[in-house]
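Researcher: Following up on the earlier apo prediction. This time include the ligand. It's pyridoxal-5'-phosphate, with the SMILES given after the sequence.
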Amino acid sequence: MISDCLTINSQGHLVISGCDTVELVREYGTPLYVMSEDKIRQVCRRYLSSFQKNYDGYGCPIYASKAFSCKEIYRIIAQEGLETEVVSGGELYTALLAGVPAEKIHFQGNNKTPDELQFAVEKNVGDIVVDNFYELELLEALGERTGKKASISFRVKPGIDAHTHEFIRTGQIDSKFGLDLQSGEALEAVKKSQSMKFVSLKGLHCHIGSQIMEKEPFVHAAQVMLDFFFRLKKELGITLEHLNLGGGFGIKYIEKDDTIPYEDYMETVSRAVHKKCAEADYPIPKIYIEPGRSIVGEAGITLYTVGAVKEIPQVRNYVSIDGGMFENPRYALYQAEYTCLLGNRANDPADYLATIAGKCCESGDLIQENTLIQKPQSGDILAVLSTGAYNYSMASNYNRNPRPACVMVSKGKSRVIIRRETYEDLVLNDL
Ligand SMILES: *Cc1c(COP(=O)(O)O)cnc(C)c1O
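Model: Understood. Below is the ligand-bound prediction.
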C-alpha cells in the first residue's frame, strides 16, 4: 500500500487506521473524504524530532494549511506543536477560531488585500510574509492609521528551478511570488523596510515549488538565501532572526513515486546550513520549513460509489463515480496521478483498464485515465488514495454539487470533522 495507514483485511476490504472502508461508507455515505489522524500526527512528530536532532530544536515546522484547512486540522497541528501558515483571510479566520495562537501564524500570499492585512495586524499575527512593495506600503499606511506595528518577513525568489510540474513551480524568476534576488529587488525591499516606522523585519522566506523529489534544490535554495543573509549583515549591518525554507516535499501518489524520507531532507539541508554559517562565522538563524502536502496528503483517501460503467469497444471503459472535479479537481487541473482501487474487493486482481469519470457536465471531469483497477460493478466502492492534500481545500460546488463530508479516523474509531453539505447549504447565500 502506498501509505502506511492503509491495509487490506481478511474480507478483502481496504482499511484505513483500523477502520473498514465498507463500514465507513455504510455509516457516512459517499462521496466521502477520510483522513487518518494517526498518520497526520506521525508525520508531524517526524518533522519535529528532525528539528530537535538537526537544529537542537532551534526551528519549527509550519503546517501550510492551504493543503487542507478546517478547524480540526488546526487543532491537531497546534496540539502537536507545529506553527501554522495561512494564505487568506478565510484561512486566518478559521485558524484563529480553532484556537491557534496568533503569534504562531505565518501569513503568506502574493496579493494580500488591504482588508486581509488589516485583519492580520489587528489580530497580532506573528509573521506577515510580505510578497511585494505594494503590501509593504499598505502595512506602513495601516500602521500610520492604527498605530500598530507589523512583524514581517520577506518572500524572496531564490532563482531555483525545481523539477516539478510547471503550474506548481514557484522559485524561478518568472513567478508571481516574491521579490527577486538577482535584480536587487529583494535588497531594495529590505532597505526600504528599515526606514519604515510600522514594520519590523524578522526574517526571510522562500518556497521553491511542490511535490519535489530531490534534495539538491532545497540545499541550493538554503545556500542562496544564506548568502543573502550574509550580504545584509555586511552591507546593511542587519542580522535577521529566521529563515523559512518553504515546503514542497513530495509524497507517494502512485507506486513508482520515489519519495525521500523527510528526515533525509532535513539532515542534508541542515548539514549545508551548518557548514555555510560556520564558514561565514554567522549565527545559525531560526529555521522554519513549511510542509503542507506531506503532512496531510498520504493520510487521506476518498471513497465513492461506482455508478454507470460504460465500455466503449476499442476506445475506453468509463467508470463513473458520484464525485468528480467538484471535490477533486487535480486531474482536470494538471493531470495529477492517483492510485485507484475497489475498496470492497481490494484483493481481486487489478486487471481492468478504467477511466474514472466524475458526474459533472464536462468531458474533462476525470479523476484518472486508463488506470488498472479490479473489475467494477455498479454499487462497488471506489477508493482514490493520497487525496488528503489539495482535494477538500480545492473543492467547489460546481453543478451545485454539495461538498462531501470529511471523517477523521484513528485507531479503529471514526468521527465527522466536516459535515456533508446539504441542498439548503447550497442556497444559503442566494437572495
Ligand atoms: C503551498 C505552499 C507551501 C506548501 O507546499 P507543499 O507542497 O504542500 O508542501 C509552503 N509554503 C508556501 C509559501 C506555499 O505557497
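Model: The chain has two domains: 6-30+299-426, 37-294.
Researcher: Noted. I'll compare it with the apo version next.
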